[in-house]
Amino acid sequence: MEVLKIATAGSVDDGKSTLIGRLLYDTRSLTSDKIEAIEKSSRKKGLDYLDFSLATDGLVAEREQGITIDVAHIYFSTQKKSYIIADTPGHVEYTRNMVTGASTSEASIILVDARKGVIEQTYRHFFINNLLRIKEVVVAVNKMDLVNYSEEVFNEIVSDFTKLQQDSNFKEQRLTFIPVSALWGENIAERSTAMKWFEGPSVLEHLENIKTENLQETSQARFSVQTVIRPKTNEFHDYRGYAGKVTASSFKVGDEVTVLPSLTTSTIKEICFFEEQFDEAPAGSSVTITLTDDINVARGDMLVKTGEVPEATKEVNATICWMDGKPLLPGNKYLLQHNTNGVLAKIDKINAHIATNFQPAGDASSLKLNEIGSVTLKLSKPVFADSYNKNKENGRFILIDSQTNTTAGVGFIQ
What we know:
By secondary structure, the protein is of the alpha+beta class. The protein folds into three domains: 3-214, Rossmann fold, CATH 3.40.50; 222-305, Beta Barrel (Elongation Factor Tu (Ef-tu), domain 3); 312-413, Translation factors (Elongation Factor Tu (Ef-tu), domain 3). It has helices at 16-26, 32-44, 60-65, 95-102, 120-131, 151-166, 203-209; strands spanning 3-9, 72-77, 82-87, 107-113, 136-142, 174-179, 222-229, 241-247, 251-252, 256-260, 264-273, 276-278, 280-281, 286-291, 302-305, 312-322, 333-338, 341-353, 372-384, 396-401, 406-413.
């Protein structure tokens, strides 16, 4: 079954958790005991409606404060498609969580409170979607019931958001505006009777009609070696397989490949998944590849089609979202993890802050927690990388603090 990965974003009290909870309820994805718990909690709060935000807010602090703090992944299915929703927090202090949740998503739902319209936080949410090059964005204008389901209010928000899109440099993005009331289920799973002036689909109808193959990045194939398989049995004494994940495009049996960084070449002999063999491994598949030649291949190496070798570089210019409490400073050293390959990196210079309203933010001497900036790094040895715009998987990395072993930042190669 087709799987669609979705990220959500919304400011505090925009009703994002309520929208997701209502979506789960209307698609009959909540268990009976979960529904009973929601009913009981809603009555305890003195509400005359079901508080569907309780279906997603898992932390005690989230339930008590009515906000989303951590990233939660929510799974549900319809007869047509399976969904994975990354429920991410929307406040500025959780920018790193937004980036993490949206980093593997193919589509996004951005909530806007109909009473407040497009605000500063909306800029940040839309900027992150642009930074991560998410092609399909649903702008759900929520709480339409609190503005008397006004078509004029909806059209004004659409106009303001469209102006924001004009400042974006990612022109492949498609925006779909839908007026909703998550609390009462208007335009969530079914079309609303309270907004007959809106002739578009409900949120679920739109998601059902998205074709995931149109959202995939099409670029040169990459295969990062996760591990080398050498069975300790007589039957497979000479077997040497390379396990990893295919990204961006496909590999086929018979393809001539180049091994990086050694630049040795060979031909794909077999593509295996458990005990099955295949003629082709599409993008996104985790497989084991064997080669016709007995050459040296190790974890951290990369297989690419001969003639499609990315440029080797010891200097990387990247957009970085900083995730550590300790600021990023020139001269700091980190472990740069690029796919399965780790190299030592030194921060050469911080070129500029990047404002999330698409306007220039000026020079910077450091990057603090949740800030985004343009940074130049010097590496101890070359990496074979693409720009993030050309190849998402091979154009991103994380920076690891070697002293604490924490993920300090995530980078997108320019």
